[in-house]
Amino acid sequence: MYSRAFDIHTNSAQSHTPSSVLIFAEFDEHLVWVRHPKRGWEVPGGKIEPGESPEQAVEREVYEEAGLRLSQLQWIAEYAYWDDNGLKRFKWVYFGQVAEASSRPRDSEIVDVRVFRPHVLPAQARLRQDVSFIMKDDVYELLWPVVQRCMTPPLTS
User: Fold this and answer.
1) Which is deepest, 47, 64, 92, 121, by most CB within 10 Å?
2) Distances from the Cα of 150 to the Cα of 26, 40, 82, 144, 156, angstroms
3) Cβ–Cβ under 8 Å, residues 75 and 6
4) Segment (H or E) for 148
């Protein structure tokens, strides 16, 4: 079961403890996407492990899923969602520049990593059958302008 995101904030402080992270990683002026074998194309992300800070989770997830190390990491948003047990959870969203790329770990659940040229825009992501439901909710659409401003150089629509 999947619950749609709600209560998305981009300019408030990090006011809730997150249980997971989502990462928009920029490489060569484009976003890095990963292909999950069941869900399809999405940006890296995942659960925060016990004892791990959100930033440590970003570092681990982006490496496990894409073989990347990031620099200039910045928090850009938080949003709420209902988990499979009906509990309200929060996800923090980050943006970072790819500083180093290597092979994914052998046990990575991800089957491919790609930079799409041109960008997969939110409206296109909603229509593509090979894109994960994670990228089809309101988060990507609402955060796209924020992501564009973070990119080098900032993108214009």
Assistant:
1) 92
2) 9, 25, 28, 10, 11
3) no
4) helix 138-150
76 touches 24 (CB < 8 A): yes
Per-residue confidence band for 1, with pLDDT thresholds at 50, 70 and 90: very low
* In contact, 65 and 47? CB cutoff 8 Å: no
Q: Walk me through the domains of the chain, giving residue ranges and CATH numbers.
A: 6-150 (3.90.79.10)
Q: Which amino acid is at 113?
A: V
What distance in Å separates the CA atoms of residue 152 and residue 98, rounded to the nearest whole number? Answer: 12
Residues 95-125: b if buried by 16+ CB within 10 A, e if exposed: bbbbeeeeebeeeeebeebeeeeebbebeeb
Residue with tokens 């073989």: 67
Tens-place pLDDT, residues 12-52: 667 789 999 999 999 999 999 999 999 999 999 999 999 99
Ramachandran class of 23: left when φ > 0, alpha when ψ lies in -120 to 50, beta otherwise: beta
Cα gap 84→62, rounded to integer Å: 24
The pTM score is 0.92
Percent of the chain at pLDDT > 90 equals: 77
